[in-house]
């Protein structure tokens, strides 16, 4: 059999050639690849999630050409990750991990299909790959849907109408066809609602939109489908989250497609790449899953928010243009560049004798792709679930090609080796093609490697010119929000953590404040996690210590309305309720407060300010060392307030409750 020495072909690592005489023989095993008795399950693709929440927030603010380069690495076929599936959050105005994403219907009588950035992202993905599959899934819902209850299923017809409106809006305003729709991310499902959703979809001519349920665990959805034939009839895909490559018997018994509809969520270094390589294969080998979707697509949110850098690549510096194509991108390419949704897995066990796994897929037209991974335990731990111990050893694998593959003469070879000693990993390198000798090929596999063997000659490892070097957020930053036709609904770099802050045109203003930033969520949403009781948007550099924040503010809510500006803000995302910092509040009743927390409970100073609602005022917060002071309309209002913790953090602005308020001429030094 023709033996492929990866190390020799790479021409790099010394002394790892053929085993010398007297060396311990490699573990050797044979595997048969045959389609004569039919094929395995149909492959549905590899994808990633934007949202859940606000994970692509900073991406939209990149300048060209960098923004397009990032999108190419993610979506362009035979370029980088070449993703088959893009799943997006259907914004619900509430915190959904790293921020809030705006809803297309803030209020019952409101519809707007140009908010946020997911519409734009889906269009950019489709531009690059018209065949990419699109999925929508809500994490949260605007409050009006629950009529005051924190629950979306009391009025299932309203919820179905809301979701179907999003799908219709995608088509009407953006010419986007949504392929799959989910129920409620990682929360309870309602069988009644799922059936009504199917009915509502069909009534609006959306028969082709498939339903995924329930984006949580395999149970109870699988069991309920087995005893409820009507539910079984309307659910097309069972989607589980972080399944640890395993499924359950009931899920298999449904006969439905099984997907890992959210997985990975791991820091995107080489261990993250090892995790991703292992689950991309083993989700099918161990769990019959025919699609795997990574949370998240691209880490485009402030890194100190929860799950920093848990994206396939990193793009968190729009102000500098710097981004990084991390190793998970090239691990993805090993599968995505040599398969397509609609291909089929071969019926084969897929476990390697020496540890690791392989999958084999065909298009049914004679093409064959084999993906092999030998990830070791400690180099492939995902963030969840815990990974039971296993061992992987160097081994020789011989593959016998049978059935229609017997005629294959040559296979292209792509190789990655994650190097945890030197850190010099070799990623997605094309090696010499391997000749098939009498229907067989042999490979010597080391630990922590990925191989793709394929009849396809279309693979490419593309590269753009190096992006600019990293830079911290500008230490002097201004935004007057004066933009007549903004390309996006949100001002650059502001990361909403409760509430939604949007560009606003103040038609009645005499001139100074026509264009402002406005908080627009006025009812607590149906939440996914514990949003704060206040609204807040953060911006800047988490490492900032001393700062002056100035902003014009306009309280719209009489009597108990209020707004704040803040510095040294230390938290956000799913932990937003416990946010600390230095908060300077003014209220419509003419009082002010200084607190060390967003909740407003730890009061450092309070008094009268003379501020009133429906008038513009200028707030200035100055924090130097252990002391803070505040100005109102340029005059000192309070000073010598001692601040001890936190030592550093972002700047922020926000409101006392879910209330309308406006901000203008924001300035940080």
Question: How would you summarize what this structure contains?
Answer:
The protein has 669 residues and is α/β, with parallel strands linked by helices. It contains 10 helices and 36 strands.
Q: Can you give a write-up of this model?
A:
The protein is an alpha/beta fold. Among the domains are: 43-314, TIM Barrel (Alpha-Beta Barrel), CATH 3.20.20; 477-668, Jelly Rolls (Sandwich). 15% of the residues lie in helices and 32% in strands. The protein is built from ten helices and 36 strands. The strands form six sheets. An eight-stranded parallel barrel has the order 3-4-5-6-7-8-9-10, surrounded by four helices. Helix 9 (270-285) links the parallel strand 9 and strand 10 (291-295). Helix 2 (66-75) packs across helix 3 and helix 9 packs parallel to helix 10.
| Tally of DSSP helical segments | 10
Number of E-type strands: 36
C-alpha geometry: globular
What percent of the residues sit in helical stretches (DSSP H or I)? 10-25%
Low-confidence stretches: 1-23
CATH superfamily of the domain at 43-314: Glycosidases
Structural class: alpha/beta
Proper CATH architecture of the domain at 43-314: Alpha-Beta Barrel
Domain Glycosyl hydrolase family 59 central: 345-459
EC number: 3.2.1.46
Main location: other
Signal peptide: 1-23
């Amino acid at each position: 059999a023709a033996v492929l020495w990866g190390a020799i072909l790479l021409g790099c690592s010394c002394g790892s050639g053929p085993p010398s005489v007297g060396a311990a023989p490699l573990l050797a095993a044979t595997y048969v690849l045959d389609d004569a008795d039919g094929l395995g399950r149909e492959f549905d693709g590899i994808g990633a999630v934007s949202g859940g929440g606000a994970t692509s927030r900073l991406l939209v603010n990149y300048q060209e050409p960098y923004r397009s380069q990032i999108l190419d690495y993610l979506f362009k076929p035979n370029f980088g990750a070449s993703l088959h599936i893009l799943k997006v959050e259907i914004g619900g105005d509430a915190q959904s991990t790293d921020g809030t994403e705006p809803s297309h219907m803030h209020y019952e009588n409101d519809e707007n299909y140009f908010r946020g950035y997911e519409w734009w992202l889906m269009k950019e993905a489709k531009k690059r790959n018209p065949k990419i599959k699109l999925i929508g899934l809500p994490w949260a819902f605007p409050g009006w849907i629950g009529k005051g209850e924190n629950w979306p299923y009391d009025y299932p017809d309203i919820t179905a109408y809301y979701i179907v409106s999003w799908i219709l809006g995608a088509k009407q305003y953006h010419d986007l066809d949504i392929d799959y729709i989910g129920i409620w991310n990682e929360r309870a499902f309602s069988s009644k609602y799922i059936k009504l959703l199917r009915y509502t979809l069909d009534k609006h001519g959306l028969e082709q939109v498939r339903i995924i349920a329930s984006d949580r665990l395999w149970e109870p959805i699988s069991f309920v489908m087995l005893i409820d034939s009507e539910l079984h009839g309307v659910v097309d895909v069972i989607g589980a989250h972080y399944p640890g490559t395993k499924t359950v018997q009931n899920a298999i018994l449904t006969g439905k497609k099984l997907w890992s509809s959210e997985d990975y969520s791991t820091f995107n270094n080489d261990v993250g790449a090892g995790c991703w390589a292992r689950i991309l294969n083993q989700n099918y080998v161990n769990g019959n899953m025919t699609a795997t979707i990574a949370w998240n697509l691209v880490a485009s949110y402030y890194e100190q928010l929860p799950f920093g850098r848990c994206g396939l690549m990193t793009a968190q510096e729009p102000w500098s243009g710097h981004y990084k194509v991390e190793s998970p991108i090239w691990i993805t390419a090993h599968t995505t560049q040599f398969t397509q949704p609609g291909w089929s897995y071969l019926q084969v066990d897929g476990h390697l004798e020496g540890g690791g796994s392989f999958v084999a897929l065909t298009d049914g037209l004679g093409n064959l792709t084999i993906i092999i991974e030998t990830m070791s335990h400690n180099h492939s731990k995902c963030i969840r679930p815990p990974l039971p111990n296993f061992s992987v050893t160097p081994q020789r694998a011989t593959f016998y090609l049978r059935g229609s593959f017997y005629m294959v003469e040559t296979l292209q070879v792509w190789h990655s080796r994650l190097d945890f000693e030197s850190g010099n990993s070799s990623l997605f390198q094309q090696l010499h093609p391997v000749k098939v000798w009498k229907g067989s090929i042999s490979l010597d596999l080391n630990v922590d490697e990925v191989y793709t063997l394929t009849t396809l000659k279309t693979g490419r490892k593309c590269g753009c010119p190096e992006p600019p070097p990293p830079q911290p957020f500008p230490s002097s930053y201004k935004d007057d929000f004066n933009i007549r036709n903004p390309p996006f609904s949100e001002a650059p770099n502001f990361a909403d953590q409760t509430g939604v802050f949007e560009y606003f045109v103040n038609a009645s203003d005499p001139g100074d404040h026509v264009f402002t930033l406005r908080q627009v969520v006025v009812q607590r949403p149906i939440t996914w996690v514990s949003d704060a009781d206040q609204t807040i948007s953060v911006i800047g550099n988490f490492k900032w210590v001393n700062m002056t924040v100035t902003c014009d503010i306009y309280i719209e809510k009489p009597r108990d309305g209020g707004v704040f500006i803040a510095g040294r803000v230390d938290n956000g995302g799913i932990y937003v309720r416990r946010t600390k910092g230095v908060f300077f509040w003014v209220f419509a009743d003419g009082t002010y407060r200084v607190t060390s927390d967003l909740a407003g409970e730890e009061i450092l100073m309070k008094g009268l300010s003379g501020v009133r609602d429906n008038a513009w005022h200028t707030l200035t917060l100055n924090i130097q060392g252990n002391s803070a002071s505040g100005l109102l309309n340029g005059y000192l209002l309070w000073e010598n307030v001692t601040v001890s913790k936190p030592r550093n953090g972002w700047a922020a602005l926000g409101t006392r409750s879910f209330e309308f308020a406006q901000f203008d001429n924001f300035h940080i030094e």
